[in-house]
Design a protein that fits this description.
The structure is a homodimer. Chain A is an alpha/beta fold. Chain A folds into 2 domains: about 55-135, Immunoglobulin-like; about 155-400, Rossmann fold (3-Layer(aba) Sandwich), CATH 3.40.50. The first copy, chain A, is about 30% helix and about 25% strand. In chain A, the strands form 4 sheets. Chain A has an 8-stranded mixed beta sheet with strand order 10-11-14-13-15-16-17-18, with helices on both faces. In chain A, helix 4 (about 210-220) crosses helix 11 (about 380-395) and helix 6 crosses helix 7 (about 290-300). The longest helix of chain A is centred in the N-terminal third of the chain and has 24 residues, at about 5-30. At the A-B interface, helix 1, strand 7, strand 8, strand 10 and helix 5 of A face helix 1, strand 7, strand 8, strand 10 and helix 5 of B. Strand 10 (about 155-165) of chain A pairs antiparallel with strand 10 (about 155-165) of chain B.
Chain lengths: ~400, ~400
């Protein structure tokens, strides 16, 4: 196998160029069609590739979009207030540099003539049903969201289960901690956190945006949290692409989700995975609407759960009273039913008033809870903080356990 | 737990409305900033949610995008030639209906004033580094890409491994077949297909677009293909977001990938998973540039692989000759080295000429191969066909096997 370096380089240079061109044809293969005037073909990300975002060591981030024919391009990002106009260069590329602190994972998008779009140059996208944002991941040695070479990494499994309730194949993500694959040999079983995302999020959002797996890896490695499974279901019950529910359908969404979780998802997980059974080994948490679903599920079935995390959760006192007023008539009983009732809320969160109203209702029932206040708004930056705060609290009595110890 | 239906409905109706509004604030929370004029706020997917795409039973598909301020919106999709203008309604929503056959999974995008964007209403996106397309999944009882309730489903695991070669934490997807979790108990081990995607694709593309997991589930269930693991690495070696390589760097990409695959990925997989070792239990395949990487890897290390699938593969005879001319000087030896050398190419594929040129080189060496011709171009619709054709061929001698039988 002799190498002929000069010859090789030449031919591979051609290969690289052609492969790129080929990919362009793959995307825009339609241009060979007779009904397209070549001169009307806009230069796209393919014709004029840019790198975006580019993060400098000082925290300065430059965003770029090739859009020579657009009239107006703005940057929208959760690292700043308002939108900012980007500036068009003579190369047709719009650019803007922004100083961003603190290091975090921030959703952002470009707004092209009024349409919000993701960054074509960035492979990291925000899984959602209604918008397509991109993710700026700022490097940070201390951030819990960054995988570390010396921290053993768990896995996230994309599973499907058959929901008899819905008559549909349903998606489900399951994080398994490092060492899980040896569980069958060692006889270890694990506690389970069921973790729900928000309105229009998908089953992927806690993984791709929330980085629940990386945070769990880090906190287990440091000994702060138990090793556990994290199950991430699809919080919105209808199939992907189904129109938003009517008000009547939405009214049943909390109860629907609780039924799906307890009648379909938990049995599937406990049949497929090595998990500990018993309420002290199950927790449920969620962000935004998912927080409401977590509260509703936990209070509906305290025989199944011992802890609940409500991250900027939406659920009204009226719903609580209608469904759980009787159950919580005696606060002490509620405390014994659910060991941990944890609420997190940001100072600028538009749901802050609603959460505080809900907590006053808990106060009126004499029910204890933990409240964690952050700065900031209704963001996934805060959702990650809430998760990191609560992972050590769900199973303080330990993580994986030998089957023999049951 | 008494239900008060009337009261409940009212309060939950408000909850649903507010949750939606809240999500809008989450996305566009910046609008409260003082530097934004409310009147300049475009109506977005949030203000005017649409459902798109909508597939009718007769195969008619309606695409829709809310873009009241855009000057020109076109539809681009691999189900048709050319772009087509969409029509703006009085509600600011651009729409177009298209008859689409056959049922398949088609990438498509909108082109807004010259910028290609994904469909904000569709959660199914095409993982890629350079463009953001959406996926139209047409329902079909016969298509291999559709999960079936009565077909046991495997799982796709998002893993990371530490590459000593690169000094980076690297992503890797691993499909495990149904029953894999019981392997430790039953002592079964599995053959492995290493499957590489194309230029600017990511490690997710064979999963999200190629549906390799669903196709493998279906073919294993019907008995046509062995149960196997499918390992999907990231074919482009630099980290996500790194600028496209210079020609000099690109020239080394085939050899770099082969080294990463054989020195890092295979050892990781064989340490982490229950797989059969020995070249007859390893195959490598890929699409486009990934097909070239598969050919290069297989011919570089025939001691590790017994079969290769080259799906519309890019690799020139010059590279083959420079690296493998000596090895293949005796065609019979090549045949004994690699049992299966499979090539697939579409009649309209822009790489067809290149593939045929490469095959003439194989002919000149007297090396046998299998050639599968399809209609169509350099598309993922064809990539799925090639995968379905080859899965039964990689391990005709069987799938999972009891450890004791080794």
């Amino acid at each position: 196998m002799k190498r002929r370096a000069g010859h090789l380089k030449g031919s591979l240079k051609a290969a690289a160029a052609c492969a790129l061109c080929g990919a362009a044809v793959l995307l825009a293969g339609s241009f060979s069609g007779a009904d397209v005037q070549p001169e009307s073909r806009p230069r796209s990300a393919w014709d004029n590739p840019v790198t975006s975002p580019v993060v400098e060591p000082d925290g300065r981030v430059t965003f770029a979009l090739s859009a020579p024919d657009a009239g107006r391009v703005e940057l929208s990002g959760q690292f700043m207030q308002g939108r900012r106009m980007m500036t068009k260069g003579t190369d047709g590329v719009w650019r803007l540099s922004v100083e961003i602190t603190p290091a975090d994972i921030y959703p952002y998008s470009f707004v092209v003539d009024g349409v919000e779009i993701s960054d074509p140059s960035n492979p990291l996208t925000f899984p959602n049903e209604r918008f397509k944002a991109s993710l700026l991941v700022m490097p940070s040695d201390s951030a819990l969201y960054e995988p570390q070479a010396d921290v053993p990494a768990g896995q996230v499994r994309y599973c499907t289960y058959w929901s008899r309730r819905m008559g549909l194949v349903r998606p489900l993500l399951v994080y398994t901690p490092p060492g899980y694959d040896r569980a069958a040999a060692t006889g270890a079983d694990y506690p389970v956190l069921y973790l729900v995302s928000g309105t229009t999020d998908t089953e992927e959002t806690w993984f791709k945006v929330g980085r629940a797996n990386v945070i769990a890896d880090r906190l287990a490695e440091s000994g702060e949290a138990a090793r556990m499974l994290i199950v991430m279901p699809y919080g919105y019950m209808p199939a992907h692409g189904t129109p938003a529910p009517s008000s009547a359908a939405a009214a049943g969404m909390y109860a629907d989700f609780a039924a799906e979780l307890t009648e379909e998802i938990i049995p599937y997980v406990e049949q497929q995975f090595r998990v500990r059974s018993g309420r002290e080994w199950r927790a449920v948490a969620g962000f935004s609407r998912g927080g409401g679903q977590a509260l509703f599920s936990a209070f509906s079935r305290p025989d199944l759960f011992s802890a609940v995390g409500a991250y900027a959760a939406y659920l009204t006192p009226e719903v609580m009273e209608a469904h759980f007023g009787e159950l919580l008539a005696d606060g002490h009983r509620a405390d014994s039913l659910l060991r941990l009732k944890w609420f997190g809320i940001g100072s600028d969160d538009f749901l802050r008033g609603g959460v505080e109203e809900n907590l006053r209702w808990f106060d009126s029932k004499g029910v204890d809870y933990e409240l964690f206040r952050t700065d900031g708004g209704h963001t996934w930056m805060n959702a990650r903080k809430y998760l990191a705060q609560t992972l050590p609290l769900f199973f303080p009595h330990g993580g994986d356990s030998l089957q023999a110890a049951h």
